[in-house]
Design goal:
248 residues; alpha/beta; six-stranded mixed β-sheet; three-stranded antiparallel β-sheet; 7 helices; 9 strands
Length: 248
């Protein structure tokens, strides 16, 4: 379980989010939505320990591992198979079959396994990073637009993998159909605050619409009462003035 409490982050005079809190329970898979610049990537960096919050706390259990897809490319082995197998550890250190299954699922052929990782296009090199990440079997995955470099077949494979993944997940993607297919909850940053619900993006945005409608009705009622109060005060002042000074 990860617990985030009263987290705030500012950049100069700009406030990304303020006093946000949420709990990530075992098995939760969260679709993370919000406008560009709302603070989604910054929150990822805070969870990874790459950025500090201005206030608040993030509780991560001991031995809990968080994995994320890196965009920078750094390969140290001569073949695709060896490069990806280098991510294995512990009892799985020699489970090359596991690596090959992932590579095939993400569009690599048998012949590709013995090729130099640097011989592939940037998109396929990102796929190698994805295989290396998934092979480490972290407690939680933070994925920011993981489908950008995938074709339909590879997306289908990743969708199945994430559904079956036993750990926790926070996923950022513009592909709402993909998100809804793999997540159990939806979370969003909006107006510097955070909303987390159980359910898909359709349920989340319906909830936002209902909240907006409730907010506008409440604001209209408050504005009406304020106007009535101001009118009452104005009339009372006028009566008081007339009572004190009389009228001509």
């Amino acid at each position: 379980m990860i617990q985030v409490t009263n987290l705030s982050k500012h950049f100069g005079e700009q406030t990304l989010f303020e006093n946000i809190s949420f709990t990530l329970n075992r098995g939760n898979k969260i679709g993370f939505v919000g406008r560009n610049g709302s603070g989604k990537s910054t929150l990822f960096k805070i969870l990874l320990g790459e950025e500090e919050a201005d206030s608040g706390e993030v509780f991560i259990p001991k031995n809990y591992t968080i994995g994320t897809l890196r965009q920078h490319l750094h390969f140290t082995h001569k073949t695709v198979r060896e490069e990806c197998a280098s991510a294995l550890h512990g009892d799985e250190a020699f489970d090359v079959y596991k690596i090959e299954k992932m590579l095939f699922g993400l569009g690599f052929s048998q012949e590709d396994l013995d090729k130099d990782p640097m011989s592939f296009s940037g998109g396929y090199q990102i796929r190698l990073n994805l295989v290396k990440l998934l092979a480490t079997n972290p407690s939680m995955l933070l994925l920011d637009e993981p489908t950008n470099y995938l074709d339909i077949v590879s997306m289908r494979w990743l969708k199945t993998f994430l559904r079956e993944f036993k750990g926790e997940l926070i996923l950022i993607t513009h592909d709402r159909d993909f998100m809804d297919a793999v997540t159990t909850h939806t979370m969003g940053l909006r107006r510097k605050s955070l909303l987390l619900i159980e359910g898909n993006t359709h349920k989340y945005y319906t909830k936002l619409e209902e909240d907006d409608e409730r907010y506008l009705k409440t604001k209209a009622n408050l504005d009406k009462k304020r106007a009535e109060l101001e009118d009452f005060i104005t009339r009372q002042k006028a009566k008081s003035f007339q009572s004190r000074y009389g009228t001509k």
